[in-house]
Amino acid sequence: MVGEIDSVPDNTVVVDNEIKEIKDKSYWQERKKRFILTEDPKIAKQNDKNDTYNRFKHLLEITDLFRHFISMRAKQDKNIQKLLKGIDSDNAKRKSNSEEGSRHHRKSEKEEDAELMAEEEGEGLELDDTTFVTESPSYVKSGILRDYQIQGLNWLISLHENNLSGILADETGLGKTLQTISFLGYLRYIKKIDGPFLVIVPKSTLDNWRREFNKWTPEVKAVVLHGDKETRNTLLQDVILEAKFDVLITSYEMVIKEKSTLKKIAWYYIVIDEAHRIKNEQSALSQIIRLFYSKNRLLITGTPLQNNLHELWALLNFLLPDVFGDAALFDEWFEQNNNDEDQEVVVQQLHSVLNPFLLRRIKADVEKSLLPKIETNLYVGMTQMQRKWYKSLLEKDIDAVNGAVGKREGKTRLLNIVMQLRKCCNHPYLFEGAEPGPPYTTDEHLVFNSGKMIILDKLLKKLKESGSRVLIFSQMSRLLDILEDYCYFRGYNYCRIDGSTSHEERIEAIDEYNEPDSDKFVFLLTTRAGGLGINLVTADTVVLYDSDWNPQADLQAMDRAHRIGQKKQVHVYRFVTENAIEEKVIERAAQKLRLDQLVIQQGASKKTANLGNNKDDLIEMIQYGAKDVFDKNDDSVTTNIDIDEILQKGEQKTKELNAKF
Questions:
Q1: Of the N and C termini of the chain, which has fewer Cβ atoms inside 10 Å?
Q2: Which pLDDT score, from 0 to 100, does residue 5 have?
Q3: What is d(CA 335, CA 343) in angstroms, rounded to the nearest whole number?
Q4: Would the keyword Cell membrane turn up in this protein's UniProt record (predicted)?
Q5: What are phi and psi of 195, to 5 degrees?
């Protein structure tokens, strides 16, 4: 009897082991399927059509210089022809719009509402897939990333999101190895992409790279391919072709020797250290690596780009083989520009093409430590006109406000109310029929009919006197139209960028604002259009006129001024309409941001809770402060408010909000 009972656990162990073995077997089979190519690398690359089209779309938005080369590709590919036609038709619409207005085309309320609704329904209330990092991630062990290294990590993340390769060209000693390892760690822990990654380095640094992986991300399985033929063969057969690794570190020489095996792998990233070896497109290494399949490529070099035409071409060909893939085409172009003057122009063009894919910081910039930014929420009430509009918006769909909405159309109805209330918090003139007229005049009424404009007016006066320069962000381009009229009225010189600004106009505006002794005091930007890649360190104050649903977008906006090269302390002022929907919006944003960072710190799987993404949350936001609007008719803000009191109160309330999350 006892024997029978004793035998049960043994069977259980056998069954458990069998289940584990089956599970292990299926895990390794699935992993092998992902890691090993079943077709020629060239065909595998052609099958990544979606990546190619997304990349082209993004590149054509950056600059027209890509046009010439992509057009050549379009001759062989109907889908690329179709893509180009679509982009051309958008550009044509944009051009005809820009010719309609005096300063530029101004959208109608209907046009912008449709855009804002599409944004809110599509992604506005959900966390984006991209999470930018604000502090050193916990998966990086044995130390923490410095601020500029976190910026480098975010730059690598943004390239990855746009299916782009890049060149990390920081000066030697700034931790390019650590930034690269932390990025591969981000892919593994946050994006759940565990390889295969190929890291090609000079022979002398093989062991250093292995040690660095073990030190910073010890759970990542990094193996080194080196040694005699037998040792290499064992590793290739038993580990590499069995997908029992995350990262393969090897030298240039080994890549050449073992090319036939290495090109069987579906590399997710190929990283090349000391990338000047790739600068000669005729070298054996260069030609072999070009045969390999990879989703993305990262070049690491400590030296700046040279003004050598062939070298620049080789880099572009390596980074963007699907655009700059045809050497004969380049030779033809090169022949057409064969005198010194023309070549100088071509070199400049190639530099400007490479710029979006290149990050270079030097020690002198990095060592001037960046002072922490000071963020303050400024809370302001509504004016009489705003209260009137806010009240009528609530009354217009009182059933929805009270939560009596059907299942199907309910969320869209609520999102529309949210959007309209947020417009009212910004400025009542965003509603057609609110502005007094005709005749329409640019006058003091532009300021005294909006609580936010009253504090902006007082704040800008104070900042102008102290010699500061200001970036003002809003999600709404029609709000920028109002701010443009205001700047004109007050005599403030300004620049502007929004979603309809062409690449050339963007560059011109940024250069104009950044030039020494520039007389431009204000820069008006829409939050999404003024995101990554824009450097405006000549400003020291950021005003977030309204908050983006996704707090990551606001962080990127602040970083236009708060980045390496900034010599002053940056102040960020976020405007919040008190006792109204906006208070709830920024509370959600603070909560979201905290969760985002916890995700990165704990390496947890995306996504975190979609805060504000259900009907109850939306109803709670809409109802917040509604009682006050109906009950207190005399509680309106006027131009008599004291800006110093507002600043003091803002500091206190900001501290309380930060303590809460």
A1: N
A2: 36
A3: 10
A4: no
A5: 125, -165
Alpha helices (runs of H) in 442-522, residue ranges in sequence order? 445-448, 451-465, 477-490, 503-514
Helix (H) or strand (E) holding 542, with range, is: strand 541-544
Look at the block and give the residue holding tokens 């009191």: 645
Q: For residue 167, give every residue at least 6 positions away whose Cβ sits within 8 Å of its Cβ, in sequence order, or none.
A: 275, 298, 299, 300, 301, 315, 319, 354, 357, 358, 359
Task: Report the Cα 112 to chain-centroid distance in Å.
Answer: 23
SS3 content of the chain, % helix, strand, coil (to 5): 55, 10, 35
What are φ and ψ of residue 440, in 5° steps?
Answer: -85, 130
In the block, tokens 């295969």 appear at: 196
Q: Which residues, other chains included, contact 173 with Cβ-Cβ below 8 Å and sequence gap of 6+?
A: 363
The type of residue at 150 is: I
Name which of 106, 127, 637 is nearest 379 in CA terms.
637
Would you mind telling me the total number of residues written for the chain in this entry?
661
Is 209 in contact with 159 (CB distance < 8 Å)? no
Domain 147-367 has CATH 3.30.470.10: no
Planar angle of CA 186, 187, 191, nearest 5 degrees? 100
Please report how many Cα atoms fall inside a 13 Å half-sphere around the Cα of residue 488, on the Cβ side.
12
CB 608 within 8 A of CB 411: no
Q: Which residue has the tokens 């909560």?
A: 591
Q: Encode pLDDT of 390-438 as tens digits.
A: 988 888 888 777 777 766 667 788 888 888 999 999 999 999 888 887 7
Residues 6+ apart with CB under 8 A from 76: none
pLDDT at 250: 92
Compare 430 and 131 and report the one with higher pLDDT.
Answer: 430
Residues 6+ apart with CB under 8 A from 659: none
Burial of 369 (0-12, 13-18, 19+ CB in 10 A): exposed
* Contact (CB, 8 A) for 568 and 466: no
Q: How far apart are CA 406 and CA 408, in angstroms?
A: 6
**Res 620: pLDDT:** 83
Task: Determine if the peptide bond prior to 428 is cis (ω within 30°).
Answer: no
CA atoms 90, 93, 95, 97: torsion sign: negative
- 90-100, pLDDT tens digit by residue? 666 655 554 44
Provide DSSP, 237-265. Answer: IIIITTT--SEEEEEHHHHHHTHHHHTTB
Q: What are the structure tokens assigned to 372, written together?
A: 């922490």
Measured between alpha carbons, how far is 507 from 63 in angstroms, rounded to an integer?
Answer: 10
b/e code 226-265 from CB counts within 10 Å (16+ = b): beeeeebeebbeeebeebebbbbbbbbebbeebbebbbbb
Indicate the range of 174-183, 258-267, 514-523, 608-617 predicted with least confidence. 608-617
Higher-pLDDT residue of 338 and 371 is: 371
Distances (CA, A) of 498 to 58, 495, 519, 573: 16, 11, 21, 20
